[in-house]
Design brief:
single chain, 8 helices, mainly alpha, globular
């Protein structure tokens, strides 16, 4: 894989999220997310937003050498983060979540575009990141976006 392929996969998989978000009015966005007990479609969109922001922050951290989560020595637990993300975003308006998700996606794409192939594909580029930056981005975007399309339609 190279950066061009990575960007293409991010854009292709996000297109379904973007289309679903654009088609829903506020009432639909506030409706229950199929298959996600207790979540609304808005919650799912805010969740996607957070993971896009996370990837962008990790890219920016690798490029600057600054850990985006300093002092966090806890083992990485995506389920715990997802619970936190849900709680932190519950009171946001549908418009705010739509704008936030679009902004987070744009930030992610810009961060990938600005990164070099060496930054994206180097193994363990910072002491706080296991694996490659591209692996983190893929997990948070092109592998993650399709997981949530069904909850948005």
């Amino acid at each position: 894989m190279d950066k061009t392929t990575l960007l293409r996969e991010i854009r292709e998989t996000h297109a379904f999220i973007q289309a679903a978000s654009a088609e829903m009015d506020d009432d639909a966005l506030l409706g229950p997310a199929p298959g996600m007990d207790g979540w609304t479609r808005k919650d799912v969109l805010a969740h996607i937003e957070w993971w896009s922001r996370h990837s962008a922050a990790v890219i920016e951290g690798v490029r600057s050498g600054v850990d985006p989560y300093p002092g966090d020595d806890e083992p990485w637990d995506p389920d715990a983060w997802n619970e936190r993300i849900l709680a932190e975003n519950r009171d946001r308006t549908p418009d705010d979540v739509r704008r936030g998700e679009a902004d987070a996606y744009a930030r992610l794409v810009a961060a990938v575009e600005d990164a070099t192939d060496e930054e994206l594909f180097a193994e363990d580029p910072q002491p706080w990141l296991d694996g490659t930056l591209a692996e983190t981005v893929i997990e948070d975007s092109s592998k993650h976006f399709p997981d949530h399309v069904a909850q948005l339609i």
